[in-house]
Amino acid sequence: MNRIVYVNGKYLPEEEASVSIFDRGFLFADGVYEVTSVLEGKLIDFPGHLRRLARSLNELGMAKPCSDEELLEIHRQLVAQNNLEEGMIYLQVTRGAADRDFVFPKNATPTIVLFTQAKKLRNSPKINLGYKVITVPDLRWKRRDIKTVQLLYPSMAKMEATKAGADDAWLVEDGYITEGTSNNAYIVQSTGDIVTRNLSNDILHGITRASLLEFASAEGVRVVQRPFTVDEALEAEEAFITAASLFVAPVVEIDGKPIGSGKPGPVVSTLREIYLTKAMEKAI
Ligand code: PLP
Predict the structure, then answer these.
(1) pLDDT tens-place string over residues 226-244
(2) Which residue's CA is the closest to the ligand 1 atom numbered 4?
């Protein structure tokens, strides 16, 4: 891999890019991130990712490293310099480097890092097979609405899923599914209604979720935003997940038990098409 990455104002070959060992992102996971997908060299749902980045920074009292116009320019430069047709752009902002102390430093300069990851997103083989998930307790902190880089528990949950021969884990709290390790969770009921957990501090406010719900509602799909249980999910016709790097992807099995036919179903397939068509129209 020989990418050009962006670090604190500079475009550099990846092996020349570095950040301080005193960076609070490294020492305290004191940082936030965004992942924007790229299709046909264009940024998907970019204004939503900028809005959520601003919100995450604000919730943590962290300085904005640069303007939205500059962020757009950096994303576009990275797409161009890496000839990125399809994949993701990862952006991370930390509070910056300071001598180690739990108290936030007063005038730290934020660290900003961006890099590209080339990946086939639209024709991923998993879309035809569907995702298998296991359920695990949701042991994350209580501010899951902030997109922080403290991803150790989701990583552990994903490892547990992998060991169990599944693709991902759905996190469960008080009997209800909150979300996936790195995606929002949904079921499709026999009425055709889509059920997904309402927004609160319990889940990340997915940008793909926001767009999909808007696009689906415009097509007359009824969306109910409320928590749902594992049993409800097992009785559902279909289930799915959304995330920037997945768009809309079918879930076919929970804890070894099939959902509906145990195969990707027509509602999820239609929702994926709706999302991709409309998101591409808005891509920049
Ligand atoms: N929920 C969690 C915990 C996530 O980490 C993510 C994405 O990383 C999502 C949901 C989906 O969010 P988005 O659609 O903005 O990618």
Answers:
(1) 999 999 999 999 999 999 9
(2) 182
Domain limits, the chain: 4-118, 125-282
Select which of 126, 147, 263, 278 is catalytic: 147
CATH number of 4-118: 3.30.470.10
* Fold: same for 4-118 and 125-282: no
The rounded Cα 75 to chain-centroid distance in angstroms is 17
**Would you identify the CATH topology of the domain 125-282?**
D-amino Acid Aminotransferase; Chain A, domain 2 (3.20.10)
Residue whose CB lies within 8 A of the most ligand 1 atoms, among 91, 142, 183, for a mutation test: 183
156-164 long-range contacts (CB < 8 A, ≥24 apart) are: 157/181, 158/182, 160/134, 160/136, 161/133, 161/134, 161/136, 164/134
Query: For the chain, what is the mean pLDDT?
Result: 97
User: Can you tell me which atom of ligand 1 is nearest the CA of 35?
Assistant: 16
Express as a percent the part of the chain with pLDDT over 70: 100
Alpha carbon distance 216, 209 (integer Å): 10
Calculated CA dihedral for residues 64, 68, 69, 74, nearest 10 degrees: 70
Say if ligand 1 is within 6 A of residue 206 CB: yes
To which residue do tokens 């992942």 refer?
35
